[in-house]
Specification:
heterodimer, A: 140 residues, alpha/beta, 7 strands, B: 159 residues, mainly alpha, 6 helices, 55% helix
């Protein structure tokens, strides 16, 4: 849902606690928001795909991971073990998840440069091809 | 239908595998508004549960949804505006009771239409002439004819 609507505003701390990221920070650039949690197996399975996409498309598209229904400690440990190639934000009370209408993790929103939600994938992204097709839609 | 993602979350929670922290909701509003929050909470389905309202579910996501109701009530939004917030994000599915408007109206009207239609059909069937009307009654058999017939049937059955 919310497809074709403006993405809800948000303000979330980065996991390293160094800054607060807001939707407006990404204005003018396509944005991918991936809601995930460390205890969610499909999230872990798709993580390398987003790492690949952020390396490949990172110049033109902003990638943001939003950790929901999890603890900061779990997430930090996961990222220490697996590394990350894009910004990770923390939604401790799932408020941003509710604002987007997230129904489970993983769930990924593709937002164009005007801030409009073009598509969403509920469940894990399965392949580079699937991810590329969604990215091409927000790069138009 | 449940998404794979929702199912993943439900299964994980059900099996106790989730690392998701349990948490308390936000501070309740004053009594009158909190009654409204709880009443509204009964109307919306928990995003990660099956058939449970956000007021009745202990799931962390349900708490977050109820917190959103509390926030919107605190902002002075009407019941309709709050319902629209949830329907915009989750679809009509989020309503525990379908709305009596639009396409969902059929869910309320259709059972009544079917019952009335069924009654009309039964009444018409009862009033319509019997399909056997005009067919002459079967002739009465004499006792010896009846005995002959029984013998005939019995021999057929025994073959």
């Amino acid at each position: 849902m919310l497809k074709g609507a403006l993405a809800p505003n948000f303000a979330m701390s980065t996991l390293d606690g160094t800054k607060v990221a807001r939707l407006e920070d990404y204005r003018g650039k396509p944005l991918v928001i991936n809601f995930w949690a460390t205890w969610c197996e499909p999230c872990l399975a798709e993580h390398p795909l987003f790492a690949w996409a952020s390396r490949t498309y990172g110049k033109d598209v902003a990638f943001v991971g939003v950790v929901v229904e999890d603890t900061e400690a779990n997430t930090r440990q996961f990222l220490r073990d697996n590394g990350t190639t894009f910004t990770q934000l923390f939604d401790p009370k799932s408020t941003v998840a509710v604002d987007f209408g997230v129904t489970g993790v993983p769930e990924t929103y593709f937002i164009d440069r005007r801030g409009i939600i073009v598509s969403k994938v509920a469940g894990a992204v399965q392949s580079r091809e699937e991810l590329t097709a969604s990215l091409e839609m927000i790069l138009k | 239908m449940l998404s794979a993602a929702a199912l993943s979350l439900i299964v994980s929670v059900a099996l106790g595998q989730s690392g998701a922290p349990t948490r308390l909701g936000t501070t309740p509003l004053d009594d009158a508004r909190e009654v409204r929050v709880q009443k509204l909470g009964k109307q919306f389905r928990c995003a990660v549960c099956q058939g449970v309202s956000i007021a009745d579910s202990p799931a962390s996501m349900a708490r977050a949804q109820l917190d959103k109701v509390r926030e919107l009530v605190g902002e002075g939004q009407s019941d309709e505006e709050i319902a629209k917030f949830f329907v915009d994000r989750y679809g009509e599915w989020v309503l525990m009771e379908p709305r009596k408007a639009g396409a969902a109206l059929w869910l309320w009207v259709l059972p009544a239409v079917l019952v009335v239609g069924g009654v009309v059909l039964i009444i018409r069937a009862a009033r319509s002439p019997s399909p056997f009307e005009g067919v002459p009654p079967a002739p009465k058999l004499l006792p010896q004819e009846l005995e002959e017939l029984v013998r005939h049937v019995r021999s057929d059955v025994e073959k």
